[in-house]
Description:
Layout: H1 2-22, H2 31-39, E1 52-54, E2 57-59, H3 62-75, H4 93-101, H5 115-123, H6 138-143, H7 145-162, E3 171-178, E4 189-194, H8 197-214, H9 231-247, E5 251-257, E6 259-260, H10 262-265, H11 268-277, H12 282-292, E7 295-301, E8 304-305, E9 309-311, H13 322-330, E10 341-345, E11 348-355, H14 358-378, E12 382-383, E13 389-393, E14 403-406, E15 409-412, E16 416-419, E17 422-425, H15 431-451, H16 457-472, H17 483-501
Parallel strand pairs: 3-7
Antiparallel strand pairs: 1-2, 3-4, 5-11, 5-13, 6-12, 7-8, 7-9, 10-11, 14-15, 16-17
Amino acid sequence: MQRNLCTKLKRQSIRHYFSERCAGGPKSKDFWPTLKPFLSNKGLLKDPVIILSENDNIISNQISVASTLNEFFVNAAQDISSVPIPDDILNHPSIQKITDHIPAPTAFDFSPVTSEIINTFITKSNSKKATGVDGIPAKIIKSCSKTISEPLAKLINLSFATSAFPNRLKEAQVIPVYKKKDPLDKQNYRPITILPFISKLFEKAINSQLSTHFENMFNPFLGAFRPGMGCQSTLLRLVEDWRKALDSHKYVAAILMDLTKAFDCLPHSLLLGKLSAYGLSDKSCSLVSNYLSNRKQRVKLGPHYSEWADIVRGVTQGSILGPLLFNVFINDIFHFLDKSSLYNYADDNTLSYAHSNSDTLIHTLQQDCTSTLQWFNINQMKANPSKFQAISFGKRGTRDITNFTFENTTIHCENSVVLLGIEIDHSLTFNTHIANICKKAARQLAVLKRLGHLLTRQGKLAIFKSFITSNFNYCPLIWHFCSKNLKKFRREHFDLFTMIIHPRIMTF
Length: 508
């Protein structure tokens, strides 16, 4: 009887805990922190205090941890061994390629902005973003957008006129987020950069004008950070090109290239040289140069902060302007290829080629891969050939291509590779990918079965959309599943909807 009483009290405590913390539904501040540990362990540390191991020493003091992480984030790309940039930037191979392909680019100068434009930027901004080091929340600025938009427009126009970006708006606060593997290793943390809200308004004014100028200059295979383009469009173009080649009885192969800290590597002098080659005036280049220079960041861990550190290269992740500048920097890589096609999405680069003769395909792909590595080297970006992956597709299901050799490295063709979150197998059936997401959905369904009677229907729907449907809705046009996989897909959805609408109560 005592055991039954203890079990009863335990179940009552569990119900009370969840009903108290989840009563407000998904909008409650306690809803997601309570349920996420049961649904996902991604980026989850049980203890909010970060402890690191450095040179066989344990660092537990949070100020020291913050300083260690800040130094690592700032210097992550400083040890790159690459070809030095020539003093005369016009002699750089990338600049020469740009001028060869665009000998007379359209001249660009920044135009003044109006208060109406700034007001639109403010009203369309997300007011829930974290506050920067200036301590001014976005919602305060949004609440007085009509009043503040005019003085902000004057300040931004003054910035355009003087080619100066305010130094106080260059100060970034960094929150380290655990990724995976060993939590004691500083390399397993990624920086989340928080900039002042006003800084983002300045950047939006710059970005909106630069985006218009560059849109027709960007290569169509440059897939990231562009309107109407994304992971799905990049993957769809790649997979459909493979299918067309296979339908023409050609061999197909691809090499997936790995880059380290791509956004942190960009040398500012070369980036400015490319901007000039694409038609930006000296005054416009000076503004971008001022925006990139004298940037600082510090790491925040709870109430603890590191010292400020200078950022001397790269573009800020989490900024508005950074992704566009990255695209500008990498755009000329396509001019260095002979016959292969390069499918780019940010720092993911997939080199692919198709030919009726397997030996010709191997030779061409190896040659273009070497050219791509040379581009990375002269542009001071760090590639890891040992981490490259390869996959091949043969005529009528055969696989005559087994490996590639370049830069004293041999890459063996895999049965499947993961590209932009989609697992692609050598038969292009996507069976493994579909099986994996169905398996993941089944695990989360098991959690819902245990917790379902403790949650409202609204809460269960929120979990369904956030943790389950999101997997099935990610790049769905890429999947080409047969009836067997379609039945599995439908069964998972049926079970989930049944659980939400009419849950069975399960004991713990």
